[in-house]
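Ticket #4471: structure output looks truncated?

Reporter: J.K.
Steps to reproduce: submitted the chain below (136 residues) through the standard prediction queue, then opened the result file.
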Amino acid sequence: MSIPTKYRERIAARCNGQLICTVDQRSCLLIYPLPDWEETERKLMRLPSLNPTAQKLRGLLMGYATDLELDGHGRVLIPKEHRAFAGLEKQAMMFGQGNKFELWDESRWNDQLKRWLDEGSADGADLPGELESLSY
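Returned output as attached by the reporter:
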């Protein structure tokens, strides 16, 4: 998989091409620059150890975390297990999400996007309180 050109220089400067790939419960992959993953890992370790949801999240993200290295052509090799988890077959979609990328199988992404749009409310009545002041 190739990292989009516009991000390659920043990744090289930020982490010398060292990335971490893990899985997400939405059946996509998360790809972090190493320093951002290390901060995420610290946050995961601070979650309550007796909380079943926290245990599941920590086990999923940390249990599947694997090192990737950006090659000289801006490519990374995604492990077979991760590709299988995300259903990556033919076409993939990669999205920048602040401190990480999401990597989706194109058909799964289209299905997820349709679900989100179908679930959404046109008037914003279903927004949690934390998002009410968000303007975009």
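Triage note (M.O.): checked the attachment and the full token line is present. The chain has one domain: 5-121.
Status: closed, working as intended.
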